[in-house]
Each structure stands twice: as structure tokens, then as C-alpha cells.
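Q: What does the assembled structure look like for these inputs?
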Amino acid sequence: MATIRDVARVAGVSIATVSRVFNNHTLVNPETASRVLEVASQLEYWPNGAAQSLTTRRTHTLGVMLPELFGEFYSEVIRGIDRESRAHDYQILLSSSHSNGEEVLIAGRAMLGRIDGLIMMAPDEASIETVERVRRRVPVVLLNPRIEVEGCCSVAFENFSGARAAVEHLVGLGHNDIALITGPQGNVDAEERARGFRRALADAGLDPDAALVIPGDFRESAGYEAGVAILARRPRPTAVFAANDCMAVGLLAALRAAGRRVPRDIAVVGFDDIAMAAYLNPPLTTVRVDACGLGQQAVELMMGAMEAGATGGSVRQLLPAVLTVRQSCGAASAGTGYLEEAAGGAGPVRRGRK
Amino acid sequence: MATIRDVARVAGVSIATVSRVFNNHTLVNPETASRVLEVASQLEYWPNGAAQSLTTRRTHTLGVMLPELFGEFYSEVIRGIDRESRAHDYQILLSSSHSNGEEVLIAGRAMLGRIDGLIMMAPDEASIETVERVRRRVPVVLLNPRIEVEGCCSVAFENFSGARAAVEHLVGLGHNDIALITGPQGNVDAEERARGFRRALADAGLDPDAALVIPGDFRESAGYEAGVAILARRPRPTAVFAANDCMAVGLLAALRAAGRRVPRDIAVVGFDDIAMAAYLNPPLTTVRVDACGLGQQAVELMMGAMEAGATGGSVRQLLPAVLTVRQSCGAASAGTGYLEEAAGGAGPVRRGRK
DNA sequence: CGAAAGTATGAAACCGTTTACATACACAGC
DNA sequence: GCTGTGTATGTAAACGGTTTCATACTTTCG
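A:
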């Protein structure tokens, strides 16, 4: 509760001097300084953050806005952001699970004056107004943006080429009736992955429009239901590409419940490479994206943008999405997925920085 | 960049009126109000958060401090905090991965004046000073505290009884040579779980000191190494209790790599019930704790504490830890763990709120 | 010895809000 | 025509810091 004034009074100096001591700005008499420090610690004086950022216009805080905080992917992103922010001495102000543009606007408003920059995940049309308004005061970095915004940096995954590689792999294994379980409509990642799926089929001389496409929503339950639908289909597809791993998990469960063997009866490929993918039965072939790295990249771009101020251009960055072959696609001949990766005596692998 | 003064000037009113319009405080002439609103939107005026919290002394932000942001457990906790905060219109200021007391203190200092309350995870001796200092200004809620702090609410899991139930279950299945893989030294959860382990053995007439205890650190790799050590032991334990699921995952991998079957050769029980536990091969018997619920509870206690101000007592809350029997312990006779839970046509279960 | 340069500190303006208090006006009741 | 009551708005003082500029006191040096 002690303010800078209290410290000044007790120490017998002016508030300017106290401020100088705490920001070791200009040279202060060492004797005075130690006296001030002494009094400050006695009074348990801690500078008030709000007041500081009001005058300095710096908050040492990064705003983070997510559409939802659901599933492992998002928490990995946050972990990446958090880790990198800490390295740069920034804290993060989190606001998530906004379902519509109005909410996003309110959240953005609440952040204003409290952040030095904003990292926004998967902005869509509804949140574009917020982005524009925030952008006029602090730098904004977009994660997997649906639409690029003039003057904003962005980081995204190579969803398209990742999905294409996955489906090409299935085609290469001899499959020519491949089903797709899509992500939620309107989701960029989902759409890009669907586009990659179609392109791979087309490139292989197959008709994308003839393929079975089941709408999903990135959740496990959607995968389960899709599995039921796929099993009912005649002729039955010989392979399925799920637009994310969560749905692949549900799909595997549905197939198992029906007594089908994977990959013998049906091959399955997912997307994301979540932590449990390697532990599934069978280990899931999927496309690996480094969610944590995405967050880190975003922070690094942000640091650059803050340094450059309004003069900096807007960097667009693409992070790789790499096909990771395990057993659910039927390509791997031996090993257990987990062991393959863990082998070498070094113990289990961890997905770490970069 | 427009301030309240700009709006006032253009609209031809005083700043007080503008402020009143935005806080729809006392009655303002509707005509004046709409004019102010009009000007404000034209000027893209957004109130400055830092300035607001300086005068009102409310930030609508909760501080969250974690020792590390690693593994699914923590991200679940954050999700719970985030979700509940949003419901109460609070944002969260996150600061994590502090390795020593000094860092915690700095982080706490940076938060001061920016938060209305602090939720601190797993505080130890090193961070106690920070807690004490913060506590003098805003309410503090402790998560799984190593030491209770006078005047702080806290939420924790019933680690002790959960672990005891797990080990009792193994004993009930006929095991009398049970090994323990511990968590990191100094971690409360780890120690409580170890205590539950010993108690269960003692209650069953077995000597806790005779049991094989392997020090771990909650990471997968520690579980793997522990597995190797356990297999080398003669006579070989017939069951293992891992202090968390991550280590159980590593353990299972080590056992599989050595060609041992679980639970036929060795029974395994974990703790936490992370998402992948039900998907492991075999599905992992473990003790379920609701990490997300922990976060939510913390926020609810915080809301109460903020309302009560300094007058409120300090609530201590315990959340249940429930044994969840799957197949790795050898008790379940049929089903696949996943299917058992997912059965009923309702699709896969999700761990949701409460 | 006096001017110039350097060091240590204080006074006061400012950051962008909220809010207690004062003021101004309109209208009712006597 | 006063006084009393509402309503609508303005003035100015906080809130807790940072920072520019001014001031006072030492040194240094020609």
C-alpha cells in the first residue's frame, strides 16, 4: 500500500529521486540510493504497474486472444508463447473462447492500454474489426489467419502441402478410395487441409468430387460418428484422412468397436501429431506441426514488430507440416511407433524447442 | 490514440460527461449521450485500461503464476482458470516457469497494480515471500500448496487418499511386492502420493521400507528408466505404482521394449488420468483428478475472496482423487477401456465442467 | 578568483481516467 | 417571487508513477 510518495517522505528525498533509484536512471548518490532502498524495503514498497505503464506507455505484456482454449493444440501454442515471452521478459494477458465478433471487440477493448502487442489466433471476418482497431495502437501478429490483414505479421502452417503429402502417401500405398473427415466449416486450417486432400487426389488422376467427404468439427466425437458412417458406406473406402488427430482418435475407436483392424481393413491418417498419436493402437500416421514453435515464432515476430514500430513491414511466415509415418496407414512394417522414436537408449523423445 | 479529452472537445462537453456516458453512471441527457457516442466512434476512442485501473483500483484481471508450463496437467488447470474467469468477465495475466524465488518475486512485482487477485500454483518455500507480499494487497488463492499460508484460500487434491486407494487396489489383487516411482523431490503432490503408497502397504501388513522406491521427476523419460531398473531387480516386483501418468507411459514403453506383458507380467497404476491414459496399450488404471476443475474452483474461491475483502476467512478445499480401473492393473476382465467409457452410443466422453 | 562543467536533487507537468463537489437551470409548490 | 427539488453538466482533485527542466552545490581549470 506504500506509494512512491511515502518512501520519499520517510527517506527525506523527493519522489523524483526515489523513481531514479528504482530505474537506476541517472546517477544518484550511492548513499542516498541505499537509504531509499532501505526505506522502500521497510515499507514494502512495490511500484504500481498500472501507474508505470500509464506514463511510460510500456506494459511488458503481450495480449493473446484465442477463439477457444480447447484441446492440446492450443495449449501447446500457449506454452510456446509463454516460454518465448518469458525469455524476453514479457508477461501474457490471455483472453480466449470468444464465440463472436462482439465478444472479441469487448476483449480487445479491455486489453487496450494493458498490452504492448497482440497475438491473435485464427482471426476470422468477425474479429477483423478488432484487429484493425488494435493494430492502430500496437503491433499485431496473426496466427493461422483466415484473411491476411494489411500491416500485420502472421505465422501459419503449411496445411495445404501437409495434407497433400498425407494423401499422396495413401495413394502411393495403393489406395484409390479415400474418405475425408473435415474440420469445422469456416476454419482456415480445415479448409486448407481439405484443399490439399482434393489436390492430391486430382494429381493422382482420381476425382475429388467422387470421394466420400464427411463434415466434422475437430472433436473426437465427430471422428467416432464419421467412423460409423464410413463403415456403412458401400463400397467402403479403404483409407481415411482425418483433418486432425482428435477426430482420428474417435475414428479408430469406432473402427475397433466394429471389429475392423487398422490398417489391414482401413488405413487412417491424421493431422497435428498430438502427444498421444504415437501411443495409439496402432500408432497413428499423421502430419506433424509444431504448435509450440508456432507460439514462439509469433512472439519473435512480435519482438521485431515492436522494435520496428510502424515502419516495419509485415512478415508472413510459413511453418512446415511434415508427414510422420507410423502404423495406422499400413506403410511401416515393424516397430511400435513409440519404440521407433524412443530407441537409441536416449529414452523417450520430447518435442522441445525448434 | 484519441483520449477522453479529444472526445470531450469535439463533442463540446466536459471529460466528466464522456466518462459518464461510457460508464452509464448517472443519468445523462440521451441526446448528449448519443452525440458523445457518435464522436467517440468516429475518433475510434477506446478508454485506456491502465488509466482506468489506476483510478478505479480494479483491473478485471487475475494473475496466474505457475512453476512451469509443462505437460497436460498444467494446461488443463489453465483451461479451467481461463474458462471460469471468462464467465466472471476477468482476463488472466500469466507468468510461468519460474525456477527460483528471486524470479517469482520479480514476476509478482511486475503483476502488482495489474491484477485484482493472484492464483498461485504449487508455491514452495522459495515463493513464500512473494505470496506474503502480494497477499497484503490482493487476495491470493493457492493451488496444491506445499505450505498453507495464513489468510490464503487454497485448493488441493486428495493426493494421499487417492494414492492409498490405488495401492490398496493392487494389494487387493494379490500383489505384495509393489514398487513406487516417485515424483520430483520437494513436490507436494509427489510426497503426498508417496505417503499414501506407504500407508497402504503398512495397512496391509507389508513393510513400506522393504518396497522398491525409484526416484523420478514426473517425466516420461524417468518412467522409462525406472522400468529398466525394475526389470533388473531380483526378485522382480509384480506391480508398480507410478506417481503420475507421464511416468507410467514411459514405464509401459520400457516394459514393452523388454517384451514383458502388462498386466500379466507386471501390473501398472498411474496417477492423474491424463487424456491419453485410456488409449494406452493396455489402457492405464490410474487415479483421476480433475485438473480443469481445480482451476475453476480456484477462480470461484477467488471471486469469493475478492467480494469478502480482507474480512473473509481462508477456505481450504480438497478435490477428490478417484481410482479409475482400466486394464493395466489386471483387474478389469473385458473391454478396452476406451470402449467401456464410450459405449452407449453417446460417443466418446469428454471431461467437461464438473 | 571567476567562469565552465559536472553532479545531485527538487519542483512541477504530464499520462488518461474516475468521481466528489459545485454549479446552473427548470419546474413545482407555497 | 421565493425556496426546494431534480436533472444535466462542468471543475478540479485524485490515482501513482516518469521525466523535463531548473537549481544548488562541487570541482576543475585558465
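Chain B has a mean pLDDT of 88.
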